[in-house]
Design goal:
Strand content: 15-25%
CATH superfamily: P-loop containing nucleotide triphosphate hydrolases
Number of domains: 1
Strand order of the largest sheet: 1-6-5-2-4-3
Order of helices and strands: EEHEHEHEHEH
Mean pLDDT: 89
Radius of gyration: 17 Å
Oligomer: single chain
Low-confidence stretches: none
CATH architecture: 3-Layer(aba) Sandwich
Protein name: ATP-dependent DNA helicase
Number of helices: 5
CATH topology: Rossmann fold
Helix content: 25-40%
Length: about 170
């Protein structure tokens, strides 16, 4: 169902170089320490495996070494036993976040009934997927209707009206 009033939806302009994943830095507060409370659960959807791995590595750099296993990449090239184990770790809270592709949704369908009710944030990195895929991704947030979650689309600058107007203004000025 698309009737999910407990999911707040937002669109965020990508400000930094796409390959830096700096726009995702907000997920891990600066100076995060081992004894800090765990991060809220999150999923970040990417269009390709290398981007999901690179983003996970960028997020690892913001964590103490002892906690880098809390954020993982997750894709179709991994074994089914690994995927099942990672889904259980996400459900239990042992894993805080996954950088992934659509294969997460497929795994949840295969395991039927195994869902993660408390994913507080779902992000789609770049405006390159179809609308139906975007809604499926966003629908992974807060299956527990008592909770409120957030779904964010991080889109490239060229999709925003203010950027288009500025581009036209620069062109006219030249």
């Amino acid at each position: 169902s698309s009737d999910r009033p407990n999911i707040k939806i937002g669109v965020q302009k990508i400000k930094y170089a796409l390959s830096s994943y700096t726009d995702l830095a907000f997920l891990i507060p600066a100076g995060f320490k081992v004894d800090d409370p765990p991060l809220p659960k999150f999923l970040i959807f990417f269009d390709n495996i290398p981007d999901s791995i690179s983003a996970a590595c960028a997020l690892h750099c913001r964590l103490p070494c002892e906690l880098t296993d809390k954020i993982k990449w997750f894709n179709s090239e991994m074994s089914m036993s690994f995927k099942e184990a990672e889904l259980e770790k996400l459900t239990s809270g042992e894993t805080w976040g996954l950088c992934m592709m659509t294969s997460f949704g497929m795994l949840a369908k295969i395991l039927q009934g195994m869902d993660v009710p408390d994913i507080s944030l779902v992000i789609q990195w770049r405006a390159t997927c179809k609308l139906t895929a975007l809604w499926q991704h966003f629908g992974q947030a807060v299956h527990d209707k008592q909770l409120t979650g957030m779904a964010l689309l991080f889109a490239e600058k060229e999709y925003f009206n203010d950027e288009r107007v500025a581009k036209v203004a620069r062109k006219v000025k030249r």
